[in-house]
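Person: At home tonight, work slowly through the protein below, taking as long as you need, and write a paragraph about the fold.
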Amino acid sequence: MAHASLVADSAPISPARRTTKGGLSPWREKRVKAMILDGLSDTLEIARLAEACALSRSHFSRAFKRTTGQSPQAWIRAQRIIRAKHLMQTTDLTLTQISQECGFCDQAHFCHIFTDSEGISPFAWRSRVLRAQPA
């Protein structure tokens, strides 16, 4: 739950989205984002998220993308990367531990997704960020 409040600021409900036809209602958006952020270390099933919003899986996926600009899977991946970056900056956890904490199936998958997203390996990213921090 602590992570949900940490990342909640990066996942606000924008007023412009409320007027988008076919998107999630504000209460649904808030509910599903909280569920995702609270469950990042677990396997998140789209069907379960859709059920929490009382929508079919396909309708939920379309509405989520219209609301956030990303598919549910892409948004979840982005949130996992945000959490991983936070953990790499603020803890001494190994990359394996971070990958597990962020819900990746293993460290290799985490490294692949992180490198695709950031253009740099997690190890190199962490080294660069920690060198830039004042001692």
